[in-house]
Amino acid sequence: MPDYDIAIIGLGPAGSTLARLLNKRFKVIALDKKQSFGTEGFQKPCGGLLALDAQKAFIRFNLNLPKFILSDPQIFSVKTVDLESSIIRNYQRPYVNLNRHQFDLWLKTLIPGTVEVHHDTTCKKLEKTAQGYQVTFEENGEIKVITARYLIGADGANSLVRRTFYPDHEIRKYLAIQQWFQEDHATPFYSCIFDSSITPCYAWSISKDKSFIIGGAFEMKEANQKFEQLKHKLTRHQFKFGTLEKTEKCTVLCPSKFSDFICGDQNIFLIGEAAGFISASSLEGFSYSFDSAEILSGILNDNLNDPNKAYQKKTLKLRLKLWTKIIKANILTSPLLRKLIMMSRVSHVSISSGNE
Ligand SMILES: Cc1cc2nc3c(=O)[nH]c(=O)nc-3n(C[C@H](O)[C@H](O)[C@H](O)COP(=O)(O)OP(=O)(O)OC[C@H]3O[C@@H](n4cnc5c(N)ncnc54)[C@H](O)[C@@H]3O)c2cc1C
Known about the structure:
This protein is α/β, with parallel strands linked by helices. The chain folds into 2 domains: 4-47 and 100-170 and 257-328, FAD/NAD(P)-binding domain (3-Layer(bba) Sandwich); 77-98 and 172-254 and 330-344, D-Amino Acid Oxidase, Chain A, domain 2. It contains 9 helices and 16 strands. The chain has helices at residues 13-21, 52-60, 100-109, 160-165, 223-234, 286-301, 307-314, 316-332, 335-344, and strands at residues 4-9, 28-31, 49-50, 77-82, 87-92, 96-97, 115-118, 121-128, 133-139, 142-153, 173-182, 190-194, 203-208, 211-218, 244-253, 268-270. Strands 1, 2, 7, 8, 9, 10 and 16 form a 7-stranded mixed beta sheet that branches. A 7-stranded mixed beta sheet has the order 5-4-12-13-14-11-15, sandwiched between helices. β8 (121-128) and β9 (133-139) form a beta hairpin. α1 runs parallel beside α6. The longest helix has 17 residues, at 316-332. The chain is globular. The structure holds flavin-adenine dinucleotide (FAD). The site of flavin-adenine dinucleotide has 40 residues, from α1, β8, β11, β15 and α6.
């Protein structure tokens, strides 16, 4: 008999949600690189904007956001900058501005005590056994080994679960770079920046707690050089880069075809970004992490006969929605189509003169 029914690797939004929703009859172990509190250790680089679909998940979960995870200020529009055509438009967006690390830590506190959580722990190796899976992890400098019947890959873009069991499954990926500067703009703002000579995806800026974050997703090989070019071009559009506070880098997935999404098989389940569940057009991923975790919890709690088949079936709608985001991304990153959309002024909200 395996030691545990379920082993969850990674407690980001996807893993924490699954751990919270699983029936208490399961014996569950959950491993996560992040510490349980404070600002030391691993932190996921992120924009920390909670979009409408993610807010909808909180309604379903009957959960409210505590004040301490909110960032200042709350902003209601995104300045969209097309560096190729020099067109700028403002689009209304009802994002909630969050402190991403505090958000992650708070989600972990909602996991019931029946789940055995190991913080500050890194999963090192995964192997298939006759009755399930063997998980080798490092905690406090010690190597430990456990076995579990079901293995959940909730370990994000660079998922060890996906790389170990599906090594040939390549999903398009970029290097995300973010730099935090002291905020020097009179009125903080969000922006979304397009320039096909710099990135085939997009770049962004976010104001958060007196910091100005500039970030982008770049082709791996030229990422640093393209990021510098981006900042240089933006200074011509009144972007100000004050004192540098920190630089963050990580892989971000950007699915390019329907077959990029991968659900798992043989009692392995991938949820959240590990499964490629992230929007190709906005890189918004929270809602898909919550939705996939919720779907999987329902399947495991109901003890269905073929849970992998059920997960494949029940995530079809989510995967089709993500596929429409690939089409949207292809439109938005086409210089001509984007220029036509922006020139139409549809949904643009102009800033009254005197307030600019
Ligand atoms: C720069 C950037 C900005 C983004 N901005 C936004 C945004 O504003 N809004 C939005 O909705 N989405 C945003 N996203 C996407 C979003 O961050 C992800 O889609 C989301 O975090 C995915 O959640 P997850 O739980 O699947 O994975 P993650 O959040 O990546 O969580 C996985 C967790 O697994 C743990 N882990 C990984 N490997 C191991 C291991 N070997 N052993 C133990 N633990 C492990 C880590 O602690 C990690 O926190 C952004 C992404 C990037 C890169």
